[in-house]
Amino acid sequence: MRTILTGIRSNSVLTLGNYLGALLPMVRLANEHSGDSMVNIFVPDLHSIISEVDGDLRENTIRTLKYWLAAGLEMNENVHIYRQSYVPAHSELCWILDCVATMGETSRMIQYKEKSEGKASCNVGIFNYPILMAADILLYSAEFIPLGEDQFQHIELARNLAIRFNHRFQQEVFVVPASTADQVKFMGMSDGIRIRDLLNPEKKMSKSTAAENSKIMLDDEPARAAKKIMSATTDSLGRVKFDMREQPGVSNLLLIEALVTGVPLQDVLSTWAGETRYGELKKKVASSVAEMLEVFQGKFAEISDTEVYKLLEDGEKYANKVANAKLLEAQKVFGLR
Ligand code: TRP
Predict the structure, then answer these.
(1) 224 C-alpha vs ligand 1 centroid, how far in Å?
(2) The CATH number fitting domain 212-300, selected from 1.10.240.10, 3.30.505.50, 3.40.50.1820, 3.40.50.2300
(3) Average pLDDT of the chain?
């Protein structure tokens, strides 16, 4: 049975952009495939500590897992949730892969370059991040890893490491993950969903933007979120049209409306075709967002910590079994066992 694997870092509360652009599409994919594939959903908590964590990491981790469930992740015998740091094989395989990866290829990672640029000092974890990520993927023989395009380079690295490792030992120890083109096909996306900053719609919505009205957080009070939509930047063209380049603010609102209501974008666009008053559109989007948050937060509140810990217990038992078996194979070919 093939494996689909993905994870979302839990450094802070997620934004509406994270939810609509990443979490929701991943939950859909997971539900669609969990009948005939293994689906591993994990919290990369070891990846979290390369940078600052808002609040308590343990609490954030449980909250993130509740987000998955509140977003509709259906649990069955093929779906496993686990915390990375509870599966020590990740760290151990990371070291082994460190000895396979080269400084050159790892230094070329865009995320590392961005995160280290201009800093007086940069921790080694930031550099090693993609190798740990390769271990996360290869330990479970994952073929598909649904992720945003900013992570494609890391998947390519995981592929290269798997290929190099297998070649070096002339054994198929690791399953080589699908190519970027096939990942994109699997996710069914032409270009990723990027929800924009409400005040500066040229930019992506980000939790690190200081202005509160730029972003909607998943724990925002629905009425507050509605106000943020009402104060969103639009333009002076006076026509409701989907054109991310010319009218990013209005287009962003249309996209949000489609995603929070589940109505196809084309249908949203035909509903609003010919409209010239942005106020009307904003009112509708504001109420749709408020309603979506109300429902989501209601579901979230119903999930108990006990329920999450029970799922983690099963998931981590499974993950350790699969990961330890693969780690042992890698250790054996290197002569460590
Ligand atoms: N790098 C991912 C991110 O920043 C998180 C992550 C770490 C991950 N390891 C992974 C995702 C393995 C998928 C598979 O979003």
Answers:
(1) 31
(2) 1.10.240.10
(3) 96
Report CA(243)–ligand 1 centroid distance (Å). Answer: 31
Q: How confident is the model at residue 192 (pLDDT cuts 50, 70, 90)?
A: confident
DSSP helix/strand/coil, 185: helix
Q: In the structure, what pLDDT confidence band is assigned to residue 265 with cuts at 50, 70 and 90?
A: very high
How high is the pLDDT of residue 191? 65
Token reading at 128: 């090693």
pLDDT at 91 over 70: yes
Write out residues with Cβ below 6 Å of ligand 1: 5-7, 9, 44, 47, 133, 136-137, 145, 147, 151
> Are 179 and 144 in contact, with CB atoms under 8 Å apart?
no
DSSP-derived secondary structure for 22-85 = IIHHHHHHHHHHTTTSEEEEEE-HHHHTTS--SS-HHHHHHHHHHHHHHTTPPP-TTEEEEEGG
